[in-house]
Request: fold
Amino acid sequence: MYSLCSGDAKQVCLHGCCMVMTPDPQKRVARPRSTAADCRQEFAATTAACFFSNTQFTNHESLPSLQESFTRFKEAYPQYSATEQADQIRAKEYYHLLHSNHTCLDYIGIGLFSHCQLQIMSSSPTTIASTSSPPSNLPSPQSLNIPLFGISYKSVNLKSQLQYGGQESALESAMKRKIMSYLNISENDYSMVFTANRTSAFKLLAESYPFQSSKKQLLTVYDYESEAVEAMVDISEKRGAKVMSAEFSWPRLRINSAKLKKMVVRNKKKKKRGLFAFPLQSRMTGARYHYLWMNIAQENGWHVLLDACGLGPKDMDSFGLSLFHPDFLICSFYKVFGENPTGFGCLFVKKSCVPILEASTSTGIVNLVRAKKLSQLPGDSSGTDTEPEKTSKFEFQEELHTSSSFSGPLTIQTTLSGRFEYEQGETSELPTTEGTAKHDKSETSKIIEMEKLADLFQQNNKVAGKEGLEIECRGLDHVDSLGLVLVSRRARYLINWLVNALTKLHHPNTEESSPLVRIYGPKIKFDRGPAVAFNVFDWKGEKIEPILLQKLADRNNISLSYGFLQHLWFSDKYEAEKQKVIERRETGENKRKDKDDLGITVVTAALGFLTNFDDIYRLWAFIARFLDADFVEKERWRYTALNQKTIEV
Reply:
């Protein structure tokens, strides 16, 4: 049996930054303290001391300036300068973030295209003299770099699609090759289908996996409420599965290893236990889990589903994942960071596992097609989910928790009718909130021009054939050019500085100098993920409602998310604290009656490879404004003055 201790033997660490330890079952010898442990301790000490050690900030006006903070930041992390290539990419390809003064901390997933790429295609001439020969200034049929595509549902069951395939357009073939190459997944080992979103992928697998015929189990490892996982749980239970969930120990929210191990290894007589759904990293708290859990599960007869939606942009290149091959893998992609969150999901199935699946009549498999007019779109809502957050700008009926987010204007899809177009086939009324894209005739003409251009590409692609087509995805190319080590290093420095800075904020004139912010999950930690879950408390110790904080941040051009932590385990030592922090949510009629709705609603911020120091400093300065006891009341009056619904704290 493998040990889950990170200090058992040598191997490149999961995120490629230092040496960690893995087990040698044949040999156990005494050895000196590992360099990995020294590295982690030194990093934590440096982070804690680098930023005004032993200092508390009790007034938002007393914060150090951006320039002073950045200078100290670079002194503490001199290797951060080696990540300047990411800043250059942001300035050149995503300049809309600077122009809009928008801080996007709610995107989770992988971006396909850059804003610059979108603008280049938008400005391309669309005067078409002949459909038989394209204008000379357009890309060749072998190079499709237009990011305007949508999805259409197809009527086919998952197993037959995986076994026999089907008609595949040149666009789909090119996109599939691009994604599998980016994720380092072999077409010889895995089959893949496009899905409407992350939730659709989970549903498809739940409806096709043999829960009913083989009486198998479902074991999930999530410390937050996920609509995709809940959909899988509901379907699995209806099909006869016994559902179990890992628990997370308070206060650091680490996996309760003893309990999870009992669930994974028990009943050894069964050859195939069921499905083990594992994310490797919490998309809310940033807690990371050892990939050896997947290995232990497979050794004990489980099929492993790796949820890669919350992983970093290059984590699939890590040593552990390059050696371990899950039975199923789900990931999701959005189009443009800070501009267009629509996209699709992907479900990968190991070819050796296809025969165990059962025929199902579920929907969710899609084709990639050119963008369609609003009047031609079906009524179903679809697109990339934005999980675990609830979105601040747009409300959806189908997906309240979703893998990308909805910060940033949707400029290309807007129409005069007061609605906007989801290119996957989704339409929704456009709310009259601040930051909404304005609609005029120029937008309508732009849509028409883009559709003409897409028509032209489609005609050319038919001539080119599947194998000759290549698709330019600058978003993926940029991450590839940076590499795993650089992307991981940059995120590590930024997220740990943010966590440290948030803990420096304390209310003035209180008996115990009560902290303004409470962090849930890991705090300063070398190998934590680039996400943080937190809550803000007023000087009385009462929590500011996360939805209100999110709305206030949105008014300041900062996009955050909020979600619900659950499956928390408190030892007897923390029983008194449990009574204070745990809340019970009201459940809707569609919720399972036996569902445990005890947990904590939290605000979340997720950092991407384009996040820079300005972004996290801006968030810190905004949170510091809550040190003003009248700040929330002032903002409430502002809402009332603007005829917006007042949110009670």
Remarks:
- The chain has 20 helices and 26 strands.
- The CA atoms of residues 14 and 347 lie 23 Å apart.
- The two ends are 50 Å apart (CA to CA).
